[in-house]
Amino acid sequence: MTDRRTRAIEAAKQIKLERYSEAQAVFVAGSIIRGTDTKYSDIDLVVVFKEVTSAWRESFIYSDFPVEAFVHDPKSLRYFFEEVDAKSGCPSLPHMVLEGIPYPDTSFSTALKEEAADLIKKGPPALSPEDLRNRRYFVTDFVDDLREPRNRLETTAAAVRLYEILADFYLRANRYWSAKGKSIPRTLQSHDPLIAERFTSSFQVLFETGNTARVVELAADILAPHGGFLFNGHKLTAPETWKKP
């Protein structure tokens, strides 16, 4: 256990005593606990009370550590598990509970970990045919921006956006949990090291040289099993209530 990890765990225990003394459990999570942190990494805390009026998230500094605290009771935690994270396809809160170090380690914290594990094991909800078509369309739209880019600035902007939506498409279309931002490479690697390497190398070439060919080819290969690129005939209909007098 690294010195910084040890200090982070001790800081979390003190935070519970000083700020959340009535909490039933605190889960200490994040890159510091995984051992992949930098000097700017924060401590992620999931704080669970017996009951709160409403869940909240707050940020603060404690003993030189940036801290992100996600405060819940079991009912709000379950709501975020099922109605927010599961439906978005990115189970960040269940992962924090499952991977986090509980303090104190009791039957209460164990039950919450089991609930998080059950949700993650179940996998994300399947994409509907309509959702899959819409995602194919949006990937196609960004890929078209890369086929004959006007300049490097636009190429970079389009590629940054495409990286996340293409990774999300690959993961969700294959019934894997998705990820956002810096978690994407780790998530891809855990499911398919070959596709993870293609993502890394293809986008690296694009960002370093401006050559978009490998990214376009990667997108084509990912979309191919699901119908390929989609533009002609696609339609998005707004809800009837989206009107103002």
Would you write up a description of this structure?
This protein has 245 residues and is of the alpha+beta class. The chain folds into two domains: 3-122, Beta Polymerase, domain 2; 129-226. It has ten helices and five strands. The protein has helices at 3-19, 31-34, 74-88, 92-99, 107-122, 129-147, 152-173, 183-191, 193-209, 213-223, and strands spanning 25-29, 43-48, 56-62, 65-72, 101-103. A five-stranded mixed beta sheet has the order 3-4-2-1-5, with helices on both faces. A hairpin with a 2-residue loop joins strand 3 (56-62) and strand 4. Helix 3 (74-88) packs parallel to helix 5, helix 4 (92-99) packs across helix 5 (107-122) and helix 6 (129-147) packs antiparallel against helix 7. The longest helix is centred in the middle third of the chain and has 22 residues, at 152-173. The chain is globular. The mean pLDDT is 95.
Task: Give a short overview.
The protein has 245 residues and is an alpha+beta fold. Helix content is 56%, strand content 12%.
Layout: helices, strands, pairs:
Layout: H1 3-19, E1 25-29, H2 31-34, E2 43-48, E3 56-62, E4 65-72, H3 74-88, H4 92-99, E5 101-103, H5 107-122, H6 129-147, H7 152-173, H8 183-191, H9 193-209, H10 213-223
Parallel strand pairs: 2-4
Antiparallel strand pairs: 1-2, 1-5, 3-4
Helix pairs in contact: 3-5, 4-5, 6-7, 6-10, 7-9, 8-9, 9-10
